[in-house]
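queue> holo job accepted (zinc ion)
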Amino acid sequence: MLDIQSYLPAKRKSSPSGWISFNAVCCQHNGQNPDRRSRGGLKVNDQGWSYHCFNCGYTASFILGRTVTFKARRLLSWLGVPETEVDVLNLESLRHRSIHGIIDDRKRVSDAIQGIEFQEFDDLPPGSELITPEMPLYWKYIRDRHVPEDFPMLTAIRNDGIHWVRPHVTVPFTYDGKMIGWTARFLDNKQPKYINHSQPGYVFGVDQQHESWQHVLVMEGIFDALSIGGLAVMHNTINDAQVKLIRSLGKEVTVVPDQDRAGLELIDRAVELGWAVSIPAWQDCKDVNDAVKKYGRLGTVLSIMQARETSRIKIELRKKQLVKRI
Ligand SMILES: [Zn+2]
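queue> job finished
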């Protein structure tokens, strides 16, 4: 099996959590300057590996038994792995599937029938620690964005005790109490703004819903969802797997789109699904998080419930009014 570690740059460090950091090999292929601050991270386990770059945001992973993905192929080529080696890796991986993967595949099919499952992914960025008031830059950021105080926000100030990474806050993704991914939001106003390790069909915030709540609010952004205890679909549309997960909660669904051009698509999707839509007439607020900053959590939720529309005609009317405002 291809030993990816033998292709890593010679200058590298290992963190106690198992991440190897080295100068990222992706950035110059993504329109950025080459990395000189060891912002690339690789973690290897017996099932494969995952890579992320804390500079340009590139991520890729490989799981034994699966096809080598396009992103993984690109990464391997940047590391200097010959294409023939990658093809061999792909064949070996798929051979593994025929021995071990069948049971897994069966399990996945039955999971798909019974409910929704995500693979555990607890590889947080190296050096991740909880944000505390002793980290004023990060603490202020999460307070300003109205993240609940009991939500575990993380950051890695230095990714292995030596190398600085771009300042960021990490939001862990959980499902059924298990960590299944994360997103890191950079605070330095450079692109990209986020690195994501998510899984198809994941909806953020499901674990924050209370049994007794009758309603569930669905929006695009993670900080929107965090600030009012809603769900985030993380795009301006909702894919079928996400629909299934949201429906499985058995609550009244209200979609709260961003009040911009991109939000219009989310409105159309909500109408298609027969879900309620709420477009409150906030002043100068692009999204829920802006509204929470301006009106507070309770004021925002109340305005959302008041502006909630279930009839298709009324939703179209509100959408037209929104188009005029944006
Ligand atoms: Zn990069």
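queue> The chain has eight helices and 15 strands.
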